[in-house]
Design brief:
Chain lengths: 215, 215, 215, 215
């Protein structure tokens, strides 16, 4: 079993909860409330903005052979922001003066702190967790889609061939990194990957239940 | 009005909620459940462990005139860990194999990410938020104490003269940093300070309500 | 006088030495030895490789309004590496197993350390110093060129309209950053800018004189 | 052979050059010029100031089991600064408005950049290189001392039992880190260690020959 398969195996209960999550189910069944989806869209917009510094720090610390594959992700995330802006504009969702929720804030801080202070290998496992969760979630939605979704471009974006290839590239690099890693480092990578999955769950929860700061 | 006073003014609703928080009230009235206090003790132990890297990065980026006052905080936090260990041992609270809660994890990531990637001034505002919240919270408990608390050493620790002087030093440095800061930087400092207060509230909530990861 | 003009004014003696530097003069007069130019080409190749992490960390810390203009520099530097590789191949200069010189190593470490631990404003002043030195140096070569240089693509690269616009953009952002900066921060920016110029001079010296580690 | 012994073996030519270096020889023979020693003292004072951020970042990234042994080094370096100040005062060497030399600047940037962006293991190898070079250099001076040196406190400081124990602790930790490291990581550690030795040599050279920026 390759390392990325081991990660998925270790995080199976998280992934099982993710793929049956009400947010995804309601989206697939085209019955998700506009306000709920808008909530997700706004926070995920902030999340993608916050993911750019994460990737940038990773690029700065990447081995040369990984760097050239990783650097384009910065531009890809900037393009994602354009997609959010187009969709928001089309659906009358405001992206001005957004207030970040605790979960979105925490997830971004986790990524940034990891990129700066943990090993590159751990950051890479975190990247895999976040990207794989997107891919699997939206692929699940696509596979369970009933009818025509108003949010089709998001569904396509994170389930298409391009994104699949990005995931494949990450998996290959991750397996190489793990091959060189000590057992204790591998354990840290597993832990970070699992935490990424947990934050993804918290993020879907936040979108569907709403969330605010204490004051 | 000095800058640190302005911060407190801007965060008054947060502080008002903090000082009346059930966790502090029940501690002051010596009727807090052991399991609840143990929950806080365990997570705050992890928090202090995670605060050491935060302070260390700050030391590394501090102006020379601030550095000598800041560096001893690393040793002080290590001594705090000893206090947690003594109290835990005395009260039969285990500190082994603790599982960090989402809120504790998020707060630590926030500190670490800020120290690495935001300006030194913002990190310093975050430090002030965390330390001032401790000081005010435990001073409030001390002032409202009914009887003899089993957790007296914690109450003393964060309300004593030493800790007061540490707070005073932070306030003086912060005011100097703010004097040199642009309006937009001051606004970021205010925002970070407020967020620190929000995380403190989330932390007390977590202690009293319990909290766990989705899976 | 705008801030970027003030920087150039403060660093005039450095710039005067730079623009009359033997390396540039001999290149312009098409009488530079192949081995000397090869020496520069090899080390500058390593330098550009090391500049990518510098820019990446800057991207990670950039204000949103600066980030979108800064991020494409990562791709631009990767393209520069391709130019070095083409030129090296054409001129039979090896880029394999290069040994970095002390000056090239030091300059890269300076950039990386600044990006991580100094303020964003200081990093930006360093970026300006490095890029402006390139632009002015190669523009000087172009203006003083006698005949056809075998190194024409480098001369064009850093003196063309695209590069001029990049410099203009940097100058505009720098002036804005300085407007918001305290006097003491501005002084640090000046110091970093001057140091960048000094390292550029050391780099030309290294190329022409050769340089090696003590052992 | 333990890993730290392997490092020393790989760096033997550097160490051989170091221990016969004119600066150390002249110091041991009590015939070093005051101006030369003052030059070293001033730059090493700046170096120690710059080493504190290096250690602080390392503390922030250290595994828990290493952190408690590493953190006291911050205070120890602050005490070293006091020794420099006492000696400077006694010998009428000014420590005001010092201008850092290129070599001292480069060495500090190397440490800081490594602590921030390389792996913790590499930072630790760099720490070992710097500290071991001090210990061996000053122990060599002590062993070859002819007469009474005016710089006796420095000679004692870095050759005494305390410093020996610090070196021993570093060696033990380093060997453990290397045990867990892949071959490619070990190679990077060796390279960083060797570079530390090279910078030490450049530093002694700078002290004895003088050194200044181009302009």
């Amino acid at each position: 079993m390759s390392f990325h398969e081991e990660l998925l195996e270790k995080a199976r209960p998280i992934w099982d909860t993710m793929l049956g999550h009400p947010f995804l189910k309601e989206t697939a069944e085209c019955r998700i409330e506009d306000a709920v989806f808008a909530n997700w869209l706004q926070q995920d917009y902030l999340f993608v903005q916050g993911a750019i510094p994460f990737i940038s720090v990773m690029v700065s610390r990447a081995p040369l052979c990984v760097r050239s594959g990783l650097a384009p992700a910065i531009g890809a995330l900037q393009e994602e922001l354009r997609l959010f802006e187009e969709m928001a504009s089309k659906k009358n969702v405001s992206l001005d003066n957004l207030r970040i929720t605790p979960t979105c804030h925490a997830y971004i801080q986790f990524m940034l702190a990891t990129a700066h202070s943990a090993s590159f290998e751990e950051s890479f496992a975190l990247l895999y967790g976040a990207e794989k969760a997107y891919f699997d979630s939206w692929t699940w939605v696509k596979g369970n889609l009933k009818g025509e979704s108003p949010w089709q471009p998001f569904i396509e974006k994170w389930s298409d061939e391009n994104f699949q290839q990005w995931i494949n590239w990450i998996e290959g690099v991750l397996d190489n990194l793990a091959d060189q890693a000590s057992t204790s480092l591998q354990e840290k990578m597993i832990e970070v990957f699992r935490l990424a999955g947990q934050y993804e769950l918290l993020f879907w929860d936040m979108a569907i239940k709403g969330e605010s700061w204490p004051v």
